[in-house]
Amino acid sequence: MAAVPVLVMPLKLWIDRPGPLTAESGYYPSGHTATAMVAYCGAALLLAPRTGRAGRGWAMPVAVVLSVATGIGLVLRGYHWPLDVLGSWLLCGMLLALLVAALRRIDNRGAAGSGTGAP
Question: Which residue in 17, 22, 80, 114 has the fewest CB atoms around it within 10 Å?
Fold first, then answer.
């Protein structure tokens, strides 16, 4: 979650794109979409292994539906252009891919360190 403003705010300042209903700028990428996606999908990634097989089957699809609904809602309400939301999804997709890689690395270290076989 802390990485979202670090990634989004410099892009907003650099691109300086006006919003659909206002002449104010700084709408690309959508910070609300980015925050929602990282929060929902990050929670699903962290909870799924602890909820058993059933949790793995529903956690990420629910998180994706909530993330998509948030982005679509922001576009329909006129707060963002569709490209603002798409940019956030792509940016946070990369961020979540890094989280998945880090979690796998942590799991692999734990598995390697807990071996009970003879040296």
Answer: 114
Give me the average pLDDT of each 10-residue run along the chain (119 residues). Answer: 80 78 75 89 81 74 92 90 90 84 78 54
Radius of gyration (C-alpha) of the chain in whole angstroms: 18
Q: Do the beta carbons of residue 32 and residue 8 sit within 8 Å?
A: no
Q: Apex CA 10: angle with CA 9 and CA 13, to 5°?
A: 90
Query: Across the strands, what pairs with 49?
Result: none
Q: Distances from the Cα of 18 to the Cαs of 27, 43, 53, 54, 70, in angstroms?
A: 6, 32, 45, 44, 20
